[in-house]
Amino acid sequence: MKRPLFSILAMSAILFIWSGISQMFPWGVPSAQTISAQSEQNTESFQAPNLIEMEAGSLTTSTFDEVMRGKISTLTTDKTFSWIITAPIDNYNPMGYFVWEIITQLFIGIFLTLLLIKLSAQPLTDKLLVVGLAGLLAFTGIYGQMLNWWAMPAMYAVGAGINLIIGWLLAAFVSAKWIIKS
After folding, report:
1. Which of 60, 116, 149, 170 is within CB 3.0–4.6 Å of 64 for a Cys-Cys bond?
2. What is the pTM of this model?
3. Which value, to the nearest 10 degrees, does the dihedral of the CA atoms of residues 55, 50, 80, 85 take?
């Protein structure tokens, strides 16, 4: 019971750290355009380098907030089609994001540990092959759909998918090599 628990915790930590590091790659946070069109600067923590500041009302109105808030929407203009996820400004909580990221990686650690236990009789290369294929499946199922339906920029989708596969393989390697052995 100790080894699976240690595996879950180790993989969760590895995945959480990898997730943070990989956000610094060019297809992560640096690829996001940050625009502010507020009439009052009430989001100090949201200030970012290369912030595009626009006149209040030039991009958004109170009607935009009423119609879009808390929903996934599409917006069509004369020259663009956009998928937009709009949340209340109160949802911007970096600490809350970290907590949910830890919980997410904990679940992935649980599932990868169960997979490695199931494959414990197999050689390390076979375990990593299965985890790599599972990562490729997750990448295709998640980012393939986002490329199609959301027109997510390919650089971001492919980069995030590669990050997912590398993170899973790294965590699985550490666990399979030193924690859950054959």
Report:
1. 60
2. 0.87
3. -90
